[in-house]
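Weekly sync, protein design subgroup
Attendees: M.S., D.O., the rotation student, P.L. (late)

Item 1: inverse folding check
M.S. brought a backbone from last month's batch and wanted to see whether the design step gives back something sensible before we order anything. D.O. pointed out we never logged the input encoding, so this time it goes straight into the notes. C-alpha coordinates as presented (379 positions):
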Protein backbone atom coordinates (compact mmCIF):
# COMPACT_ATOMS: atom_id res chain seq x y z
CA UNK A 1 0.00 0.00 0.00
CA UNK A 2 1.13 3.56 -0.56
CA UNK A 3 0.66 6.39 1.93
CA UNK A 4 -2.64 7.61 0.44
CA UNK A 5 -4.13 4.10 0.50
CA UNK A 6 -2.80 3.51 4.01
CA UNK A 7 -4.24 6.80 5.28
CA UNK A 8 -7.70 6.17 3.85
CA UNK A 9 -7.86 2.58 5.06
CA UNK A 10 -6.83 3.58 8.58
CA UNK A 11 -9.35 6.40 8.79
CA UNK A 12 -12.15 4.06 7.67
CA UNK A 13 -11.26 1.09 9.94
CA UNK A 14 -10.38 -1.02 6.91
CA UNK A 15 -7.62 -3.65 6.60
CA UNK A 16 -4.22 -2.01 6.26
CA UNK A 17 -0.62 -3.19 6.01
CA UNK A 18 0.38 -0.82 8.83
CA UNK A 19 -0.56 2.50 10.37
CA UNK A 20 0.80 5.61 8.59
CA UNK A 21 4.05 6.87 10.12
CA UNK A 22 4.26 10.66 9.97
CA UNK A 23 4.55 13.66 12.23
CA UNK A 24 3.26 17.19 12.76
CA UNK A 25 6.64 18.80 12.06
CA UNK A 26 9.49 20.45 13.93
CA UNK A 27 10.04 23.86 15.49
CA UNK A 28 12.49 26.15 13.65
CA UNK A 29 14.82 25.95 16.65
CA UNK A 30 14.87 22.14 16.55
CA UNK A 31 16.58 21.87 13.18
CA UNK A 32 19.95 23.51 14.02
CA UNK A 33 20.08 21.54 17.27
CA UNK A 34 19.60 18.33 15.31
CA UNK A 35 22.15 19.35 12.69
CA UNK A 36 24.72 19.59 15.48
CA UNK A 37 23.64 16.09 16.57
CA UNK A 38 23.95 14.47 13.15
CA UNK A 39 21.08 15.59 10.92
CA UNK A 40 22.51 15.87 7.38
CA UNK A 41 23.30 19.45 6.44
CA UNK A 42 21.20 19.29 3.26
CA UNK A 43 18.13 18.57 5.41
CA UNK A 44 18.88 21.48 7.75
CA UNK A 45 19.04 24.24 5.16
CA UNK A 46 15.49 25.38 5.80
CA UNK A 47 14.22 25.12 9.38
CA UNK A 48 10.78 24.48 10.77
CA UNK A 49 7.55 23.67 9.04
CA UNK A 50 6.24 20.22 8.26
CA UNK A 51 9.55 18.98 6.82
CA UNK A 52 8.39 15.80 5.12
CA UNK A 53 11.93 15.52 3.72
CA UNK A 54 13.20 14.87 7.24
CA UNK A 55 10.55 12.26 8.08
CA UNK A 56 11.22 10.49 4.78
CA UNK A 57 14.94 10.44 5.61
CA UNK A 58 13.93 8.67 8.82
CA UNK A 59 12.10 5.98 6.85
CA UNK A 60 8.61 7.30 7.63
CA UNK A 61 5.78 8.27 5.31
CA UNK A 62 5.68 11.85 4.08
CA UNK A 63 2.67 14.02 4.81
CA UNK A 64 -0.54 15.30 3.32
CA UNK A 65 -0.89 18.24 0.94
CA UNK A 66 -3.50 20.93 1.65
CA UNK A 67 -5.33 22.98 -0.98
CA UNK A 68 -7.79 25.85 -1.02
CA UNK A 69 -7.37 29.68 -1.12
CA UNK A 70 -9.92 30.32 1.62
CA UNK A 71 -8.04 32.89 3.71
CA UNK A 72 -7.57 36.63 3.62
CA UNK A 73 -6.63 37.80 0.12
CA UNK A 74 -4.45 39.62 -0.49
CA UNK A 75 -2.43 39.38 2.71
CA UNK A 76 -1.33 42.68 4.19
CA UNK A 77 2.22 43.89 3.65
CA UNK A 78 4.62 43.18 6.50
CA UNK A 79 6.00 46.49 7.80
CA UNK A 80 9.10 46.90 9.97
CA UNK A 81 8.42 49.68 12.50
CA UNK A 82 11.58 49.57 14.62
CA UNK A 83 14.75 47.53 14.44
CA UNK A 84 17.66 47.17 16.88
CA UNK A 85 20.33 44.58 17.62
CA UNK A 86 18.10 43.15 20.38
CA UNK A 87 14.64 43.15 18.79
CA UNK A 88 12.47 44.05 15.81
CA UNK A 89 8.99 45.60 15.96
CA UNK A 90 6.85 44.90 12.92
CA UNK A 91 3.27 44.63 11.70
CA UNK A 92 2.62 41.20 10.22
CA UNK A 93 0.52 40.06 7.26
CA UNK A 94 -2.66 40.09 9.39
CA UNK A 95 -2.10 43.58 10.81
CA UNK A 96 -0.83 42.48 14.22
CA UNK A 97 1.93 44.62 15.78
CA UNK A 98 4.64 42.35 17.24
CA UNK A 99 7.95 42.73 19.06
CA UNK A 100 10.32 39.85 18.41
CA UNK A 101 13.56 39.21 20.27
CA UNK A 102 16.76 38.64 18.34
CA UNK A 103 18.73 37.42 21.34
CA UNK A 104 16.51 34.76 22.93
CA UNK A 105 14.01 32.02 22.08
CA UNK A 106 10.51 33.23 22.78
CA UNK A 107 7.19 33.81 21.12
CA UNK A 108 6.78 37.44 20.01
CA UNK A 109 5.28 40.07 22.31
CA UNK A 110 1.87 41.13 20.98
CA UNK A 111 1.62 44.93 21.11
CA UNK A 112 -1.53 45.78 19.15
CA UNK A 113 -4.14 44.45 16.72
CA UNK A 114 -5.43 46.25 13.65
CA UNK A 115 -8.95 44.83 13.94
CA UNK A 116 -10.73 46.72 16.72
CA UNK A 117 -14.30 47.51 15.64
CA UNK A 118 -16.72 47.64 12.72
CA UNK A 119 -14.81 50.48 11.03
CA UNK A 120 -11.50 48.62 10.99
CA UNK A 121 -13.26 45.39 9.99
CA UNK A 122 -14.79 47.03 6.92
CA UNK A 123 -11.69 49.03 5.98
CA UNK A 124 -9.02 46.38 6.31
CA UNK A 125 -10.56 42.91 6.52
CA UNK A 126 -14.06 42.34 5.17
CA UNK A 127 -13.26 42.94 1.51
CA UNK A 128 -10.33 40.52 1.72
CA UNK A 129 -12.86 37.69 2.16
CA UNK A 130 -14.65 38.34 -1.13
CA UNK A 131 -14.93 34.94 -2.84
CA UNK A 132 -15.52 36.59 -6.23
CA UNK A 133 -12.40 38.75 -6.49
CA UNK A 134 -10.39 37.96 -9.65
CA UNK A 135 -7.30 36.95 -7.67
CA UNK A 136 -9.27 34.33 -5.77
CA UNK A 137 -10.99 32.96 -8.86
CA UNK A 138 -7.57 32.57 -10.47
CA UNK A 139 -6.28 30.80 -7.34
CA UNK A 140 -9.29 28.46 -7.38
CA UNK A 141 -8.58 27.47 -10.98
CA UNK A 142 -4.93 26.85 -10.13
CA UNK A 143 -6.00 24.76 -7.13
CA UNK A 144 -8.19 22.51 -9.27
CA UNK A 145 -5.27 21.96 -11.66
CA UNK A 146 -2.87 21.22 -8.79
CA UNK A 147 -5.21 18.71 -7.17
CA UNK A 148 -5.73 16.93 -10.48
CA UNK A 149 -1.96 16.71 -10.93
CA UNK A 150 -1.06 15.76 -7.36
CA UNK A 151 -3.93 13.30 -7.05
CA UNK A 152 -1.95 10.93 -9.23
CA UNK A 153 0.70 10.71 -6.50
CA UNK A 154 0.85 8.72 -3.28
CA UNK A 155 0.25 11.48 -0.68
CA UNK A 156 -3.22 12.15 0.82
CA UNK A 157 -4.89 15.37 -0.34
CA UNK A 158 -6.67 17.70 2.10
CA UNK A 159 -9.31 20.30 1.28
CA UNK A 160 -8.64 23.43 3.32
CA UNK A 161 -11.83 24.42 5.16
CA UNK A 162 -10.15 27.27 7.00
CA UNK A 163 -11.11 28.88 10.30
CA UNK A 164 -13.97 30.89 11.73
CA UNK A 165 -13.17 31.86 15.32
CA UNK A 166 -9.40 31.26 15.11
CA UNK A 167 -8.72 33.82 12.41
CA UNK A 168 -10.81 36.46 14.17
CA UNK A 169 -8.91 35.79 17.38
CA UNK A 170 -5.66 36.24 15.47
CA UNK A 171 -6.86 39.49 13.93
CA UNK A 172 -7.94 41.14 17.20
CA UNK A 173 -6.55 39.13 20.13
CA UNK A 174 -8.20 36.65 22.50
CA UNK A 175 -9.25 39.23 25.10
CA UNK A 176 -10.73 41.59 22.53
CA UNK A 177 -12.74 38.93 20.72
CA UNK A 178 -14.03 37.67 24.08
CA UNK A 179 -15.32 41.15 24.92
CA UNK A 180 -16.74 41.59 21.41
CA UNK A 181 -19.09 38.65 21.95
CA UNK A 182 -20.84 40.77 24.60
CA UNK A 183 -20.15 44.34 23.45
CA UNK A 184 -21.06 43.88 19.78
CA UNK A 185 -22.34 40.36 19.10
CA UNK A 186 -23.79 41.47 15.76
CA UNK A 187 -20.31 42.35 14.52
CA UNK A 188 -18.91 39.00 15.66
CA UNK A 189 -21.76 37.22 13.88
CA UNK A 190 -21.12 39.24 10.71
CA UNK A 191 -17.42 38.43 10.75
CA UNK A 192 -18.06 34.71 11.22
CA UNK A 193 -20.67 34.74 8.45
CA UNK A 194 -18.46 36.70 6.03
CA UNK A 195 -15.51 34.38 6.54
CA UNK A 196 -17.77 31.31 6.48
CA UNK A 197 -19.44 32.42 3.23
CA UNK A 198 -16.05 32.87 1.60
CA UNK A 199 -14.82 29.46 2.71
CA UNK A 200 -18.01 27.75 1.57
CA UNK A 201 -18.00 29.43 -1.85
CA UNK A 202 -14.34 28.62 -2.49
CA UNK A 203 -14.70 24.98 -1.41
CA UNK A 204 -17.88 24.55 -3.45
CA UNK A 205 -16.20 25.85 -6.61
CA UNK A 206 -13.18 23.64 -6.09
CA UNK A 207 -15.33 20.55 -5.54
CA UNK A 208 -17.71 21.34 -8.39
CA UNK A 209 -14.62 21.80 -10.56
CA UNK A 210 -13.92 18.11 -10.13
CA UNK A 211 -11.16 18.18 -7.52
CA UNK A 212 -10.99 14.99 -5.44
CA UNK A 213 -9.74 14.92 -1.85
CA UNK A 214 -9.04 12.26 0.75
CA UNK A 215 -10.17 14.42 3.66
CA UNK A 216 -10.89 18.00 4.71
CA UNK A 217 -9.18 19.94 7.47
CA UNK A 218 -9.38 23.31 9.16
CA UNK A 219 -7.78 25.23 12.00
CA UNK A 220 -9.18 26.93 15.10
CA UNK A 221 -6.91 26.94 18.19
CA UNK A 222 -9.83 28.09 20.33
CA UNK A 223 -8.92 26.38 23.61
CA UNK A 224 -6.31 26.86 26.33
CA UNK A 225 -5.22 24.75 29.30
CA UNK A 226 -8.53 25.13 31.16
CA UNK A 227 -10.98 24.78 28.28
CA UNK A 228 -12.50 26.76 25.40
CA UNK A 229 -11.82 30.46 24.83
CA UNK A 230 -15.43 30.77 23.67
CA UNK A 231 -18.39 29.48 25.67
CA UNK A 232 -20.19 26.38 24.39
CA UNK A 233 -23.33 28.52 24.17
CA UNK A 234 -21.70 31.01 21.80
CA UNK A 235 -20.02 28.13 19.98
CA UNK A 236 -23.40 26.54 19.26
CA UNK A 237 -25.01 29.85 18.34
CA UNK A 238 -22.41 31.23 15.93
CA UNK A 239 -20.06 28.46 14.83
CA UNK A 240 -22.02 25.20 14.66
CA UNK A 241 -24.19 26.36 11.72
CA UNK A 242 -21.03 27.25 9.79
CA UNK A 243 -19.43 23.88 10.54
CA UNK A 244 -22.60 22.03 9.60
CA UNK A 245 -22.89 23.51 6.15
CA UNK A 246 -19.23 23.03 5.20
CA UNK A 247 -19.36 19.43 6.48
CA UNK A 248 -22.56 18.80 4.51
CA UNK A 249 -20.85 20.15 1.39
CA UNK A 250 -17.84 17.91 1.93
CA UNK A 251 -19.94 14.79 2.45
CA UNK A 252 -22.00 15.54 -0.66
CA UNK A 253 -18.72 15.24 -2.57
CA UNK A 254 -17.58 12.03 -0.88
CA UNK A 255 -15.36 13.54 1.84
CA UNK A 256 -16.25 11.88 5.15
CA UNK A 257 -13.06 12.49 7.16
CA UNK A 258 -13.18 16.09 8.38
CA UNK A 259 -10.87 17.43 11.07
CA UNK A 260 -10.09 20.59 12.90
CA UNK A 261 -6.69 21.58 14.28
CA UNK A 262 -7.19 22.86 17.83
CA UNK A 263 -4.68 22.90 20.67
CA UNK A 264 -5.61 23.13 24.35
CA UNK A 265 -8.24 21.34 26.41
CA UNK A 266 -10.95 20.52 23.87
CA UNK A 267 -13.16 18.26 26.01
CA UNK A 268 -16.19 20.58 26.08
CA UNK A 269 -16.12 21.09 22.31
CA UNK A 270 -15.63 17.51 21.10
CA UNK A 271 -19.34 16.58 21.27
CA UNK A 272 -20.30 19.87 19.60
CA UNK A 273 -17.84 19.33 16.75
CA UNK A 274 -19.06 15.77 16.31
CA UNK A 275 -22.65 16.97 16.24
CA UNK A 276 -21.75 19.52 13.57
CA UNK A 277 -20.04 16.90 11.39
CA UNK A 278 -16.36 17.39 12.26
CA UNK A 279 -15.36 13.84 13.16
CA UNK A 280 -11.56 13.96 13.55
CA UNK A 281 -9.52 15.70 16.25
CA UNK A 282 -5.98 16.92 15.51
CA UNK A 283 -3.33 17.13 17.01
CA UNK A 284 -4.95 16.18 20.35
CA UNK A 285 -2.57 18.04 22.63
CA UNK A 286 -2.01 16.11 25.87
CA UNK A 287 -0.97 19.06 28.06
CA UNK A 288 -1.10 19.42 31.83
CA UNK A 289 -4.82 18.58 31.75
CA UNK A 290 -4.03 14.98 30.76
CA UNK A 291 -5.87 14.48 27.50
CA UNK A 292 -5.78 10.87 26.33
CA UNK A 293 -6.76 9.47 22.91
CA UNK A 294 -7.66 6.13 24.49
CA UNK A 295 -10.06 7.81 26.91
CA UNK A 296 -11.73 9.79 24.12
CA UNK A 297 -12.21 6.69 21.97
CA UNK A 298 -13.85 4.91 24.90
CA UNK A 299 -16.07 7.93 25.47
CA UNK A 300 -17.15 8.59 21.87
CA UNK A 301 -16.58 5.28 20.12
CA UNK A 302 -15.50 4.81 16.54
CA UNK A 303 -17.36 7.93 15.44
CA UNK A 304 -14.36 9.89 16.73
CA UNK A 305 -11.25 9.75 14.55
CA UNK A 306 -7.95 10.98 15.97
CA UNK A 307 -4.66 12.16 14.48
CA UNK A 308 -2.01 12.99 17.08
CA UNK A 309 -2.06 12.41 20.81
CA UNK A 310 1.58 11.39 21.45
CA UNK A 311 2.85 13.65 24.22
CA UNK A 312 5.81 15.65 22.86
CA UNK A 313 7.28 15.96 26.37
CA UNK A 314 7.74 12.18 26.57
CA UNK A 315 10.07 12.38 23.58
CA UNK A 316 12.47 14.48 25.67
CA UNK A 317 12.51 12.07 28.62
CA UNK A 318 14.30 8.97 27.43
CA UNK A 319 14.05 5.59 25.66
CA UNK A 320 12.18 3.79 28.45
CA UNK A 321 9.41 6.40 28.65
CA UNK A 322 9.13 6.57 24.86
CA UNK A 323 8.77 2.80 24.57
CA UNK A 324 6.14 2.69 27.33
CA UNK A 325 3.93 5.25 25.58
CA UNK A 326 4.26 3.50 22.23
CA UNK A 327 3.18 0.23 23.86
CA UNK A 328 0.30 1.97 25.69
CA UNK A 329 -1.12 3.38 22.45
CA UNK A 330 -0.77 0.15 20.45
CA UNK A 331 -4.32 -1.17 21.10
CA UNK A 332 -5.77 2.07 19.73
CA UNK A 333 -3.44 1.91 16.73
CA UNK A 334 -4.56 -1.67 16.08
CA UNK A 335 -8.24 -0.71 16.33
CA UNK A 336 -7.96 1.83 13.51
CA UNK A 337 -9.34 5.31 13.08
CA UNK A 338 -6.21 6.62 14.78
CA UNK A 339 -2.90 7.90 13.41
CA UNK A 340 -0.43 8.51 16.24
CA UNK A 341 1.90 11.46 15.95
CA UNK A 342 3.40 14.14 18.16
CA UNK A 343 0.76 16.42 19.72
CA UNK A 344 2.48 19.49 18.26
CA UNK A 345 5.70 20.33 16.45
CA UNK A 346 8.72 18.60 17.97
CA UNK A 347 10.52 21.08 20.28
CA UNK A 348 14.30 21.57 20.49
CA UNK A 349 14.62 19.85 23.89
CA UNK A 350 13.97 16.54 22.08
CA UNK A 351 17.32 15.12 21.00
CA UNK A 352 17.73 13.65 17.54
CA UNK A 353 18.77 10.35 19.15
CA UNK A 354 15.56 10.26 21.21
CA UNK A 355 13.42 11.03 18.20
CA UNK A 356 15.09 8.36 16.08
CA UNK A 357 14.57 5.90 18.94
CA UNK A 358 10.87 6.80 18.87
CA UNK A 359 10.76 6.22 15.10
CA UNK A 360 12.58 2.89 15.39
CA UNK A 361 10.31 1.60 18.17
CA UNK A 362 7.15 2.85 16.42
CA UNK A 363 8.11 0.92 13.31
CA UNK A 364 8.59 -2.26 15.32
CA UNK A 365 5.68 -2.03 17.78
CA UNK A 366 3.00 -0.27 15.73
CA UNK A 367 4.00 -1.51 12.28
CA UNK A 368 5.78 -4.84 12.91
CA UNK A 369 8.43 -3.36 10.57
CA UNK A 370 6.13 -3.93 7.58
CA UNK A 371 6.84 -1.77 4.54
CA UNK A 372 8.91 0.81 6.40
CA UNK A 373 12.15 2.43 5.36
CA UNK A 374 15.40 2.10 7.31
CA UNK A 375 15.96 4.29 10.36
CA UNK A 376 19.28 6.16 10.10
CA UNK A 377 21.89 6.00 12.84
CA UNK A 378 23.62 9.11 14.13
CA UNK A 379 26.75 9.39 16.22
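Designed sequence read out in the meeting:
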Amino acid sequence: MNFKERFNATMHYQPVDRVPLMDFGFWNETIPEWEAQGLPAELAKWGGGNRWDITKWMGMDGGWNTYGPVGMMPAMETQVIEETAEYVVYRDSTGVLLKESRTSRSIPLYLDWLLKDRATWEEHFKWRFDPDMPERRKAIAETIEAVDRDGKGSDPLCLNIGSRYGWIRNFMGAENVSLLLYDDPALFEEMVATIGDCIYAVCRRILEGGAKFDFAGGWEDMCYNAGPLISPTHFKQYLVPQYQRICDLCRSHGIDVIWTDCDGKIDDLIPLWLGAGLNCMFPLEIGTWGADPIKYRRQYGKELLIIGGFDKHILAQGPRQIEAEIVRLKPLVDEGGYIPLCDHRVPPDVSLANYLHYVREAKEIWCANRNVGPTPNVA
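Discussion: The longest helix spans residues 185-208. The chain has two domains: 3-75+115-365, 77-113.
Action: P.L. to compare against the previous round before Friday.
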